[in-house]
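For the sake of clarity, the format in which proteins appear in this thesis is described at this point. Each number in the token line that follows is a code from a learned vocabulary of backbone shapes. One such record is shown here in full, so that the layout can be seen directly:
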Amino acid sequence: MPNHLWMQDDHHAYADTVRRFLDEEFQPHRDKWKEAGKIPKDFWRKAGDLGILGATTPEDHGGLGLSRHFDAVTYIEQAKAGDSGWGFAVHNIAAHYIIAYGTEEQKARWLPKLASGEMVGAIAMTEPGTGSDLQAVRTTAVPDGNEYLINGSKTFITNGGSADLLLLVAKTDPKSRAKGVSLMIVETEGLEGFRVGRKLDKMGMRRNDTAELFFEDVRIPRDHLLGTEEGHGFYQLMRQLPWERLILGYGALGSSQCALDVTLAYVKERKAFGQRVMDFQNTRFKLAECATKVEILAAFLDQCLEELEQGTLTAEKAAMAKWWGSQTQCEIVDECLQLHGGYGYMNEYLIAELYADARVQKIYGGTNEIMKELIARDLDRD
């Protein structure tokens, strides 16, 4: 298990709290919630009561005011518990948009509710015809008196069916690309014209209610524009994406460690040809490789996290963390499933869930191909 040099006594105590919370409140229900395809709201509220949801929210807005290292602890512990379905990461990112760009009134109105779990947050970016090209979104938010009139649709929205608050990517100037993009804060409860479509049937992450969203002449107040000026949405997105991509890297790290842990337990018990599977040289070499990859990934992510806290993490380096982390995760989980033999293909074994969950990591948050293009563009600069 990696030794994160930044972890002090308070980080370890916090990790114990998160781990205990997941052991007591998540693990007994993991199969039921996987079948239901949804995490219940009372689980969110319990996480809020413990300070997990608002760990990095300022104290004067209902949080603990801690550094992002504490959120990294939560991502690692959740993934080490063998889950990627609880949409804490997206909820947390939504809160950080408001922390970074919201007015004082917006922060006071929404951050305490997100920190407590009273509201579940989501980010509505992707559209049926628009993936990584956020400048090309077609959902519109047209000024109309003291309101915005919203029309459009979104898909693949994590927490889509549970969200009480959406950070909506929309065009306030449909004729422009980047400069026409704005972020809207949308409260969904009782919102006329807003509709949650079908819950999407995914290969993995089956505890999350990933959904389609539809907006038909939806009206929201003008002060629900994130910040004070239209046309800043693309800039806001680009400034926050490094944190989102680093989050995906830490999820990959925790999942890789989980795969390694369950596989070590399996190969030490399972026997073949009169000896433990662990005693075969191929098994030992494969696990040695996986353990080394975990350590290297942890060291790189920790370096990126330190740069993020110092305000020096570049978009290109965050892209490296996202693509390398997700690629490494998929490689490790695949090797670990192989060492389970036929049992690894059975859904009753956790490694099968880890395998199904891992694949989307190379797609969402910007595909790995897009990540490599971002890195290459930086290399090609004069």
The chain has eleven helices and nine strands. The beta strands are 121-124, 140-144, 147-157, 165-171, 181-187, 194-199, 211-221, 271-272, 275-276.
